[in-house]
Amino acid sequence: MRKMFRRSRDAGLFMAILAAGVIPPAIAEDPAADKRPPLTASQDDIPDPDIRAWWNLTYDRKPEPPVPGKDYGMDAATGRFVHPKATPLVRQAPSFPGQLSYWDQKSYAKNVEVLAFYNFIPSTGHTWQSIADFGGKRYMYTYYRSGMGVFDITDPRKAKLVYRRGQRVGAYGKPDIVNPYAKGDGFGAANISWHKGLGKYVMVQSFEVARYGIMDEKYREPEGVDTLKHWKGLKGFRVYVMDGPLPDQWKLVAERTTDYRHPDAPYGQQQGSGSLDIPAWTGGKYMFLSTAPDDRFMLTEFSDYIYTPGYQAWDMSDPANPKFVSQFAAPGQILGDAAHEAAYLMNPRAGNRTSWFGSRMPPFMTKAPDEGGKIAFGCRRALVWHMDHLDACVHTQHFCQDVKRRTLTRRAEGDHVRVRLRICDQFNERLHR
């Protein structure tokens, strides 16, 4: 069957984590508050020049930790949860009065039939899934960076693990590792699409810098900033032609960095974030990526991540020779650009040291440009939602919009959230090449 099937980021295919459970500690006061740089920082205060320029651009408006039971928690009168108005970044789940004091071991389902359960878990955080057909059988790939498994799911009630590599998480979180990936390598978020010209499936894998675990506060941890800037791995994507379902049947035909201004830069010298999440591609001419292409895209409040991704378009007419087409930036992303910095300062989240600015995944399209598609939906979190016009040059125009929602101060704002959009004015958006 020459069709790309549904891909899911949902780790729940293999494990349902019902974490309405153990009461963890409440949000604590920021132990590093007294270590914050002055309003106007010097090189001694913040050694990295880009992080220093970002810090000096804004006021420090980091929210104070909300008080459980007062600023957020269960309302005893209504039985509803009251959300906090704003929070700083926290690394432990906060507690609140009315929260369960135990792990809920029950399973809950509505209009869903559980056919089977398989305990192959590459990561306890989340996993990716991709599905493709070979030789009359259907295969599912479940993976996340350092671990992956291939299942024959022709009969989903009796799925069979036919290949695995890297990490699998066992009981009590104990890792079970076979044939590990090299440090800095792994299995990238993958798009599998049928390429009519080749008459084969083509897989595109994204590779990016780590989004967490490197540092806590970028303004006081220059070593972490340097690690992301000089990431010892690919910042970009790889293209494989699939002659069968298993990795030893795939052929690597192309590798590209999303640092289009330095296309030949080696690992460790490529700038920007790399390619985030699953590429948006249907096997046709244009592929779209979420990426910060270089170290100019750094206007973001996220405390432990330094980039604000925009969008890229690539010509995939020949999968073995992907060609860069264009780079898009929403107003308020580029450090050192007066117009972008002015737009950034107009955002009510500027200075909150919490919000993610920029995309976290490629834009969504009902139709690809090759198929007559004109409009794409892009979620850029603190930069709100955008409707992008896809013309012959690929997203050279941009629509502004009226977003019916409140301004929030939280880490994952705009991530899989229902919104109502009203396209208002249209204007030309210059490409940043």
Write structural notes for this entry.
It is a single chain. With 433 residues, the protein is mainly beta. The protein starts with 48 loop residues before the first helix and ends in a 5-residue tail after the last strand. Strands 3-4-5-6-7 form a 5-stranded antiparallel sheet, with no helix packed on it. Strands 16-17-18-19-20 form a 5-stranded antiparallel sheet, with no helix packed on it. The protein contains 3 helices and 20 strands. 6% of the residues lie in helices and 28% in strands. The radius of gyration is 22 Å and the shape is globular. The longest helix is centred in the N-terminal third of the chain and has 9 residues, at 49-57.
**Secondary structure tally: strands:** 20
Q: End-to-end span in angstroms?
A: 39 Å
Major beta sheet, strand line-up: 3-4-5-6-7
Q: Treating each run of at least 4 consecutive H or I residues as one helix, how many helices?
A: 3
Whole-angstrom Rg: 22 Å
| Oligomer kind | single chain
Low-confidence sequence ranges? 1-33, 384-388, 392-412, 414-433
Helix-strand sequence: HEEEEEEEEEHEEEEEEHEEEEE
| SS strand fraction | 25-35%
Q: Nutshell version of this structure?
A:
By secondary structure, this protein is mostly beta strands. The chain is 6% helix and 28% strand.
